Amino acid sequence: ADISMRIAAGEVIERPSSLAKELIENSLDAGARSISIQTEQGGKNSFVIEDDGCGIAFEELPLALERYATSKISDIEDLERISTLGYRGEALASIAAVSRMEIRSRARGAESGGVIRCEAGEITLHSETPAKSGTRVQIDDLFFNLPARRKFLKTSSAELRRIVQIVNDYALIHPEVAFRLSEENRKILEYGNAESVDECLLRRWGRQTRIYRSQAQSGALSVRIWWNPAPDSRRIAVTLFVNGRRVQDAAVRAAIVSQDAASYGEWLVLIELPAQEVDVNIHPTKEEIRFRRSGDVFKTVYDCAKALFAQRLS
Ligand code: ADP
Ligand code: MG
């Protein structure tokens, strides 16, 4: 890959947890019911993700690696109402540019599968092969061709912690999907299917936790919030998903922090709104977003959080 591609790739892919986020989102977009990740050295040496989703047809494998190739949007109008998590067609191309990558996949209903290998953006193998239905992506030696980036990575356990957080968060809001994570063959996380987000939260926060839950609606904007006041905590942790995408947003955090009552504890905030009301296209990693009516979002989240304090007092 040329220098500019490598630099651009470094923007989308910062560290092994970026692989987790992008590849989990791809698996979810593919309709997976089971997602399993295996890492070595916190994903620095090896990151493998397997899913049972719709798969990629043999002929489409090279396309999946091409920059700006996405099967998820076909015209400019689609860009206005993005409903899948991916849409930029950047993740696989970016990862491929800065690693050694192999994808094995069999599309649902296809007789046989395919494998494609890529090293620093150059395809080195593309052939038919027997494969399990679904997709397996393996990334070895992330940033092997960007030594400065590689040096910047943290210890294996620190990188693993970030991956754990990503898996934990996606597992929370996808009760219908089983998630597994292991590092060097050691089991780290295992979540079977659950009935609801509530059940996932109890799993995460502990069965004894008293969870406060509230929802609010403003036109087409829907906000659901779960709060674990964690009485010993002096920390406010906000996990936010907007239309299924894990993001950060200062206004949402402010709406929780600026309450009169103490808002210590853990928060899960799920916001759904029409795709054209939110611009996810402002940053390559899609971790920052812009609400078209951020005042409205602030107020709705604020009111919804406020209702939780009232519940707690009553
Ligand atoms: P995007 O998600 O933005 O479309 P990606 O680079 O992440 O772009 O993926 C490129 C394409 O590869 C996707 O549009 C999809 O068609 C295909 N793809 C990637 N991962 C999977 C997967 N796990 N299962 C099925 N198809 C996949
Ligand atoms: Mg994607």
UniProtKB/TrEMBL annotation:
Keyword DNA repair: yes
Coiled coil: none
Annotated Gene Ontology cellular component terms: mismatch repair complex
The keyword Ribosomal protein is annotated on this UniProt entry: no
Keywords: DNA damage, DNA repair
Domain DNA mismatch repair protein S5: 201-310
Listed GO MF terms: ATP binding; ATP hydrolysis activity; ATP-dependent DNA damage sensor activity; mismatched DNA binding
One of the GO BP terms on file: mismatch repair
Function: This protein is involved in the repair of mismatches in DNA. It is required for dam-dependent methyl-directed DNA mismatch repair. May act as a 'molecular matchmaker', a protein that promotes the formation of a stable complex between two or more DNA-binding proteins in an ATP-dependent manner without itself being part of a final effector complex.
Family the UniProt entry places it in: Belongs to the DNA mismatch repair MutL/HexB family.
Protein name: DNA mismatch repair protein MutL
Full protein: residues contained: 7 to 320 of 571
